[in-house]
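Example protein was shown:

_____
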Amino acid sequence: MEKNKRILVLILTLLLSGLYVYLFGFVFFTPDWMTIILDIAFWITLLLYFFLVNEIWTWVKEGKRSELADIVFIAFLFCLIFFLLKDLMTSFMGAFFIYLLLGRSEVKEYEVLSKLLDISLITYAVIFFSGIISRIINNDIILNIAFSFSIWLILGLGFAYFGRKYIVVFRFLSPEYLTLLLYVLAWLV
């Protein structure tokens, strides 16, 4: 990416984050600032925001991302969503959903990886938005249903994308599904 476009990304990041704070902190909501200041998630999110701006600045100067840029971005997204929703699982799913959504363009030329990324992206999106809806209505039933059907969503999308060849692809992904199955079992217990 050209240096002018990278500078534009930095400026947009700063302006949009300032607009976000202004709109949600002063216009749409009037939060209790004392509660926010005492919240540790706020301070961690603020610290990670400064690290993220530093990583973007490094990217603007050098033309390539540092090794920690992706980790800082995911951690910032996780802490920001956790600060807003106070839900650990929704924060994980939201951080990875946004990260995969933005990183989708990097694997477009690889057909199989692109389709596998789409499957993960759709699954994370369903769980993330179900978590947001569950938080809004203050009932976890929608999140629980979405999480329960996520394995079937993965399998259904896999067969929709790959057909019978998905069995071969599925064998290569078996450690991920085994981990997901163990997580589901631990979650049910």
About this structure: The mean pLDDT is 83. Residues 1-86 form one domain. The CA atoms of residues 160 and 166 lie 9 Å apart.
